[in-house]
């Protein structure tokens, strides 16, 4: 019977199963804790109706009267003013009475500007059709009007960025800002 050499046994790579949510137990951290999961997305701890803490994707979470701003929400509000509250990324969900750093009114028109290697393309009515599909690494700008963080009375052309890594989350600057709406 052939024997395996120790060198071959040590070189064999093992596949480790990775779960989409964070590897930390939700029961070991407080409700509202935000972490990046095994799938690269952000997750938040929310208590179930029975009081058990569970990891929930941030884009589908409602907690403390706040919800993350998503393209789905803006698609339902094309042509309507949406009050958006922004802050720098944090590792905890906003509290009930948290004062956000920035507040703006945004009226999405449904169009998306796609920028790849300095080439700009306008996808008209993108919020309704979601065509063309989002690809990672694209710069995506949802078009509309805004009051510019409440500093001016009149509305001006404004764009909100769509996170191309998950295609759902929206903020004025996806690199360092997260946007919420009150529910």
Task: Explain what this protein looks like in three dimensions.
With 183 residues, the chain is mostly beta strands. The protein folds into two domains: 43 residues, no CATH class; 119 residues, no CATH class. The protein is 9% helix and 38% strand. The chain contains three helices and twelve strands; from the N terminus they run H-E-E-E-E-E-H-E-E-E-H-E-E-E-E. Strands 4, 5, 6, 7, 8, 9, 10, 11 and 12 form a nine-stranded antiparallel β-sheet that branches. Strands 1-2-3 form a three-stranded antiparallel β-sheet, with no helix packed on it. The longest helix is centred in the first third of the chain and has 6 residues. It is globular and about 45 Å long. The chain starts with 5 loop residues before the first helix and ends with a strand. The model has no long low-confidence stretch (mean pLDDT 88).
Can you describe this structure in just a few lines?
The protein has 3 helices and 12 strands, in the order αβββββαβββαββββ. It has helices spanning 6-11, 71-76, 126-129; strands at 34-36, 42-47, 53-57, 62-63, 66-68, 82-88, 102-116, 119-123, 139-146, 156-162, 170-171, 177-182. The model has no long low-confidence stretch (mean pLDDT 88).
Features:
183 residues; single chain; mainly beta
How would you sum up the major sheet? Answer: 9 strands, antiparallel
Outline type: globular
Structural class based on helices, strands and sheet pairing: mainly beta
Summarize the helix and strand pattern as letters.
HEEEEEHEEEHEEEE
Summed up, the domain count is 2
Put simply, the count of helices is 3
Number of strands: 12
Arithmetic mean of pLDDT: 88
Spatial separation of the terminal alpha carbons = 68 Å
Radius of gyration: 21 Å
Low-confidence stretches: none
- Taken as a percent bin, the fraction of beta residues is 35-45%
Percent helix range: under 10%
């Amino acid at each position: 019977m052939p024997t395996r050499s120790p060198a071959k046994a040590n070189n064999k790579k093992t596949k480790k199963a990775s779960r989409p949510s964070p590897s930390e137990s939700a029961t070991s951290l407080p409700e509202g804790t935000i972490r990046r999961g095994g799938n690269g997305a952000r997750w938040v701890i929310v208590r179930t109706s029975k009081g058990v803490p569970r990891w929930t994707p941030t884009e589908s979470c409602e907690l403390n009267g706040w919800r993350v701003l998503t393209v789905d929400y803006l698609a339902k509000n094309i042509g309507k003013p949406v009050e958006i509250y922004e802050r720098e990324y944090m590792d905890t969900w906003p509290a009930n009475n948290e004062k956000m750093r920035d507040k703006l009114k945004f009226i999405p028109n449904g169009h998306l500007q796609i920028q790849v290697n300095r080439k700009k393309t306008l996808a008209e009515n993108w919020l309704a059709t979601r065509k063309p599909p989002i690809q990672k690494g694209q710069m995506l700008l949802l078009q509309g009007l805004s009051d510019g963080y409440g500093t001016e009375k009149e509305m001006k052309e404004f764009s909100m960025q769509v996170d191309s890594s998950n295609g759902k989350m929206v903020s004025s600057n996806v690199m360092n800002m997260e946007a919420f709406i009150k529910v």
